[in-house]
């Protein structure tokens, strides 16, 4: 089963090598959770439509590697929407609320990753696909004290998105103390 | 391992380099070369023009646009970092299985 | 508060006033009193001794021009922390990242009499992987001992945003170190 998931993800990543038709845009999902917002101790709420993304892009620095990577990422995107809620105690939010988002997903949406853990973080990733192209992304993350949803509308480069956090060009330090240059450390 | 204690030790204040204060004081006696950011110069121009009673609507709009753009940039970076972190959780889980 | 405290405050106020009046000796006293704090914030953020000193010098030169606006010793500390943080953010956007060598990190870690320089060096280098706001929030928390509300005031951020930066930054550090939460 796990090999199937790996192969599915690799297949989708390979599909990104094919030209993406910029005209095929995904749909924006409704990410409103008023009940969660009311109970959360901390909230991150980001709503950037196409116009705001283009505006943000003009203020990204070309000299900063992180922001250069961000400029590449948002090229062609129609929107980025994030809702993240943190709670003081476990069990303060209803995990089944994620179902409200899943119910919005049409036949073009495919689940590409499911991570399930009894004690840590559950992550579901869905991609909106039109032919071989990805036109949207949905990430649902549920931790004991945090619920996060990310909806990206437009052509998303999954590899570049995952690599963003390791873009700083400094040695990554493994737990065994050895140093290694590179984009990512899969040393767990 | 107690991360709080370790961070407190790791982030303890370091001594400034020897002679630091003297180097700063010596620069007080040399002609100042102002390096003001573009944004500061624009803001100063707006204030000066307003003081002269001639602030144009275009200048006000430009100033607000800059603020809006900076805010959008910050929000964008926050959003991308969050998304990237979640992707990596999934990536590691898939790689381990 | 001890009887000596009001006298100490009076002396600090007097130094500020004398420095604002152009007394370089008094300004030198202010620099020496706060230079470690300013240099340390910059160093922990950049992990580059030369750039940290450059920023620290610029902060005090900016202070010299702004002395007339400083209302009290407490305001001075607040002002120094805020301006140093802002200059660190500006510097990071210039993108002059480079690999930190172990020797450089060793120099400053040894200077502080670190009991575990290896771990401190590792933590310091891991901090460099965090986004700038998280790195600053953690520095203000653990170097300066500020509460989240105080960090919010210094960095001009809402309290919830500060808490989020702290939580995410610490979570990332725990993950990289393999420490269970």
Q: Give the helix tally of chain A.
A: 6
Query: Judging from the principal axes of the Cα atoms, what is the shape of chain B?
Result: flat
Report the sheet with the most strands of chain B, covering strand number, pairing sense and barrel closure.
none
Helix content of chain A: 25-40%
Q: Tell me the radius of gyration of chain B.
A: 24 Å
Coarse shape of chain A: globular
The strand order across the widest sheet of chain A is 1-2-6-5-4-3
Rg of chain A, nearest Å: 18 Å
In N-to-C order, the SSE pattern of chain A is HHEHHEHEEEEHEE
Tell me how many strands of chain B there are.
0
Give the integer mean of the pLDDT values of chain B. Answer: 75
Write structural notes for this entry.
The complex is a heterotrimer of chains A (188), B (97) and C (181). Chain A has 188 residues and is an alpha+beta fold. Chain A is built from six helices and eight strands, in the order ααβααβαββββαββ. Chain A has a domain at 2-50 and 77-157. The longest helix of chain A has 14 residues, at 2-15. Chain A is globular. Chain A starts with a helix and ends in an 8-residue tail after the last strand. Chain B is mainly alpha-helical and 97 residues long. Chain B has one domain (18-96). Helices cover 73% and strands 0% of the residues of chain B. Chain B is flat. Chain C has a single domain (34-177), classed as Butyryl-CoA Dehydrogenase, subunit A, domain 3, CATH 1.20.140. Chain C is elongated and about 55 Å long. The model of chain C is unreliable at 95-113 (pLDDT under 50). Chains A and B meet through helix 1, strand 1, helix 3, helix 4 and strand 2 of A and helix 4 of B.
């Amino acid at each position: 089963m796990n090999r199937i998931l790996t192969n599915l993800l690799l297949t989708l990543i390979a599909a990104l090598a094919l030209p993406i038709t910029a005209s095929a845009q995904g749909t924006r999902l409704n990410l409103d959770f008023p009940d969660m917002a009311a109970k959360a101790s901390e909230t991150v709420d980001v709503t950037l439509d196409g116009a705001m993304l283009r505006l943000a892009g003009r203020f990204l620095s070309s000299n900063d590697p992180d922001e250069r990577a961000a400029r590449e990422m948002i090229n062609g995107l129609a929107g980025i929407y994030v809702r993240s809620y943190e709670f003081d105690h476990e069990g303060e939010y209803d995990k089944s609320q994620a179902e409200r988002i899943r119910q919005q997903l049409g036949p073009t949406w495919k689940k590409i990753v499911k991570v399930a853990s009894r004690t840590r973080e559950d992550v579901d990733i869905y991609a909106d696909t039109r032919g071989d192209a990805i036109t949207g992304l949905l990430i649902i993350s549920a931790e004991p004290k945090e619920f996060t949803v990310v909806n990206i509308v437009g052509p998303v480069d999954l590899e570049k998105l995952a690599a963003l956090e390791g873009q700083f060009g400094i040695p990554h330090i493994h737990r065994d103390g050895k140093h290694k240059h590179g984009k990512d450390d899969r040393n767990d | 391992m107690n991360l709080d204690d370790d961070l407190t030790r790791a982030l303890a204040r370091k001594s400034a380099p020897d002679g630091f204060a003297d180097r700063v004081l010596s620069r007080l006696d040399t002609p100042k070369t102002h390096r003001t950011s573009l944004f500061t110069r624009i803001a100063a121009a707006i204030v000066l023009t307003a003081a002269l009673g001639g602030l144009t609507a275009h200048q006000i709009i430009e100033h607000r646009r800059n603020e809006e753009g900076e805010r959008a940039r910050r929000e964008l970076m926050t959003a991308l970092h969050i998304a990237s972190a979640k992707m990596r959780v999934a990536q590691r889980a898939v790689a381990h299985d | 508060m001890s009887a000596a405290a009001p006298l100490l405050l009076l002396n600090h106020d007097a130094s500020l006033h004398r420095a604002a009046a152009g007394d370089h000796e008094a300004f030198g006293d202010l620099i020496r009193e706060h230079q470690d704090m300013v240099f340390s914030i910059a160093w922990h953020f950049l992990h580059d001794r030369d750039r940290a000193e450059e920023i620290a010098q610029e902060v005090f030169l900016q202070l010299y021009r702004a002395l007339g606006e400083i209302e009290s010793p407490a305001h001075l500390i607040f002002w120094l922390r805020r301006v140093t943080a802002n200059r660190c953010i500006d510097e990071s956007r210039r993108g002059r990242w480079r690999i930190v060598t172990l020797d450089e990190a060793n120099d400053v870690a040894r200077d502080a009499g670190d009991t575990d320089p290896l771990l401190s060096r590792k933590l310091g280098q891991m901090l460099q992987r965090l986004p700038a706001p998280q790195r600053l929030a953690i520095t203000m928390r653990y170097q300066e001992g500020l509460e989240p509300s105080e960090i919010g005031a210094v960095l001009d951020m809402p309290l919830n945003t500060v808490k989020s930066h702290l939580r995410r930054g610490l979570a990332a550090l725990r993950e990289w170190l393999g420490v269970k939460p």
